[in-house]
Amino acid sequence: MDALGNPALESLVITRRLRVPLDTPADAAPDWGATAARQLDAALLSVGFTCSPALLARLAELPGAAVVDLGVRVLTAVRRLVGDHVRHNAYFIDFPANVPDTVEFWAGLLREALLDPVTALDPAAARVRTSTLDLLSLPGYGRYRHTYAELLAAHAELVPLAGDRVTVLEPGGSLQAEARDLYLSLAGSEAPLAAEDLAALRSLASFCAEQPEHVPVRENRAVVNEVRLAAGLPLLVDTVTDVLRLACGASGGDVTLTAPTRFRSFRRAERRALLAALDGLPPAKHGDVARHREQWKRLGERLHPHEFPRFPRAAQVFETARGARRVPGFDSRVEAALSAGRTADAVRLLEHAPGALLRRLDHLLRTGSSASAVLDAAERSAGRASGRVLLSLREHLQNRIEPAAGRVFVNRYGRAWTTPDGRAPLGGEVLERLLAVLDEEITRRLPDPGELVVDPDVLDVALPLSGKAVAPGLGMLPRGSLSRVDGELLRFFVHWRQAERRTDYDLSALILDASYGDPEQVSWTNYTSDFARYSGDLTDASDGASEFIDVRLAEATRPIVIPQVNIYSGEPFDEAAEAFFGFMTRDAAQEGRPFEPRTVRMKSDLRGSGRVALPLVFLRGDDGVWRVKWLHLYLKGHPRFNQVEGNRVTASLLVRSIVERDHLRVRHLVDLLRAKAATAAAGRTPGTGTATGTGTGTGTGTGRITYIGLAAPAGLPPGSRVYTAATLHELIPA
Description:
Elements: H1 7-17, E1 19-20, H2 33-45, E2 49-51, H3 53-60, H4 64-82, H5 102-115, H6 123-128, H7 148-153, E3 167-171, H8 175-187, H9 195-207, H10 218-231, H11 240-250, H12 268-279, H13 293-303, H14 312-322, H15 330-339, H16 343-350, H17 354-359, H18 361-365, H19 371-382, H20 387-398, E4 407-410, E5 416-419, H21 428-445, E6 451-454, E7 473-474, E8 482-484, E9 489-497, E10 504-512, E11 520-522, E12 532-534, E13 545-552, E14 560-569, E15 578-586, E16 600-605, E17 612-620, E18 626-635, H22 644-660, H23 666-682, E19 692-694, E20 705-708, E21 721-723
Parallel strand pairs: 1-3, 2-3, 6-19, 6-20, 20-21
Antiparallel strand pairs: 4-5, 7-16, 8-18, 9-13, 9-15, 10-11, 10-14, 12-13, 14-17, 15-16, 17-18
Helix pairs in contact: 1-4, 1-8, 2-3, 2-4, 8-9, 9-10, 10-11, 12-14, 13-14, 15-16, 19-21, 20-21, 21-23
């Protein structure tokens, strides 16, 4: 299939990989393709993107008309990626200039409602004269009072500077090849995917003929199995829950099993395949049925296992769901042993499930049993657990070295809460032994990097051990990642558009001192501080609404700025027609519109069941440099009327827990890779050494290059192994 055959898939490849799929051009007489390519590059620069020299050369080989058609699709994709596909108006037309004092603003609205001969006839004006006054119902409040064209006329053109973001687009192979690579990358991820990536995986699975044989994450496996079921291929299952996830996905339901699914009627061939998969699993696996008993009952009503007597073990699964058979689950047997004080028995059971043993390791070490026996079992299990479990345990243990102020818990939707840490400490010798075991096993699984080249900017990026709460977008990094903020002016923004009912989101900023106290806020109730300014409150988004907060970093008197998006009323984030957050940076001399796409550093969708979004936090370090740390958190909030003033205690505790946590970063894997490269080099023939280091060059050695960075530089030789922000999950060993 060529690029014109599936524009949605083409857009997916462009936005996820920053590569433009290109088929090999047929022999054609040269025309104006090179001219069209230069015109496309100029248009891309206006939104902060550019074509690499290689992409320009490839485009020049195409007919001019084909370049124009492709350019329209590329521009559409990157404009949506950066948030420039909508018109970002501001309540105050001159923002950030001429923003009134909060009291002055409200007084002006009151005066207008009472004295203006036109607005005095508005029904809202009559309510001003009543004993109860709703300020939000005043005429003119919460709606744009000027058009987007008038906003543009009030602002000068942005003067491009060297510090503006320029994201490079590279040439790709055919759409089929690019889609295949993206599909295999997502399907083979060792970390759970975000909901958007799971949807992308489903789209890619129906397009790509090649099916992966190793899919480690259960939800990903269910999506791949949907295609295998439709094609009559053998299913990838090793637990009964794999079959349940597949049935949910094939019915258009939730493969995570969080929400109940209304099962469809399955064709006889599909029922036979599902029951055969269940029949191939030993009865010992049936203990997992009780965890989703009701969903199994509903599925049995659709599969009719009595019609297939040759699958007796499949029928036993549904007997277990109905309670006719009792099969103790693995977890229940472990819990029974622990409750009875038989820790040794629990450890012996858990050794059959090494991942479960390592996840429970902290608890087992605190049960009062023999720490030596538990550690021996952990060492035996480390070689059989997944790489993600090893890295997650490594991060957990390095945070047990020093007592924590509190523990933070985050579910799959980014909903977070904290509790005091009442756990007994683990001994220093125990931690030292475990960390050494984990590092040794992780190093063993890492590939020989050959010549290792690392961009220093990627070292403080957290390893993506789970992507479930991270919505894909521009410049997105995993929770706990830290990166520098350059520029004199910081501007973060939210845009939303309601689907059916009036929806009011409020962009706010919680500003704290170095001890996370003495709170100050900028929001619709306080438009300005000594270094921050709010663009004005919008309460209706039938045609879309944008709000901004400007922060002059050089003048900031406090070192912690926490942006928030509060749902004051209306539709949740995942029900609105559109909702996204991002931030820009620019120099003080750059004026321009409130939203300038080439200055956008980060943008992603808002989603989740929480009513308060905490995307990230800006921190000024002891060196005076501002940095951003990614949070990807949501607070439950209230059904209505959420305000920054009402959640500042919860927000500050959560943010402090994330900021002070020692996240496992790319730096750690780089250190292990360097050690492995040095060991491998020592065993090679003298004179064929391997270069390792940190920098943006491509090294001087003769071996294969492994490059790790936020983006791939030009000039890497063919065959180089490249890990960028979009493919960091591939760094996690199997």
